[in-house]
């Protein structure tokens, strides 16, 4: 059970801070929800409390793990298949896992591929989504601005 003020990660959406816990009636059924405010885009997300475990909601990583994520971006990119469909499915699976290191790997591989060969529309959308998920968690873990986090990501991957 999370509390108001907790920093959490919602896989496929990103990280945020629980702003309130509300009870809403939707389709005749009353449920309790966490209302999470995202640090990017001023968006709010409602998460059903009884679905937290199945969704994979977790705490935001700590500062040490955030530093490890930044360091992992410097490492050489692992070779990916040239089959677009297979590569897309593998990357989507990594993003859905909710594991910040896997999301960072997707961002790194897609940014690297974009510089070498360019990306399809689908992969460009995936890159933008994965980047927002990565940035949102690192912003909360390191207490930095989204712009500063994105600058570090781009710098680490370009070198």
Description:
- This protein folds into 2 domains: 7-59, Thrombin, subunit H; 63-158, Methane Monooxygenase Hydroxylase, Chain G, domain 1 (Up-down Bundle), CATH 1.20.58.1290.
- 50% of the residues lie in helices and 21% in strands.
- It is built from 6 helices and 5 strands.
- A 5-stranded antiparallel β-sheet has the order 4-3-2-1-5.
- β2 (14-26) and β3 form a beta hairpin.
- The model has no long low-confidence stretch (mean pLDDT 92).
- Overall, the morphology is globular
Count of domains: 2
The CATH architecture of the largest domain is Up-down Bundle
User: What is the CATH third-level topology name of the largest domain?
Assistant: Methane Monooxygenase Hydroxylase, Chain G, domain 1
Low-confidence stretches: none
**First-last Cα distance:** 41 Å
Number of E strands: 5
The arrangement of helices and strands along the chain is EEEEHEHHHHH
Number of helices: 6
Relevant CATH superfamily of the largest domain: CarD-like, C-terminal domain
Summarize the amount of helix as a percent range: 40-55%
Name of the level-1 CATH class of the largest domain: Mainly Alpha
Mean pLDDT: 92
Strand order of the largest sheet: 4-3-2-1-5
Given helix and strand content, the structural type is alpha+beta
Tell me the β content.
15-25%
Biggest sheet character: 5 strands, antiparallel
Q: What is the rounded Rg?
A: 17 Å
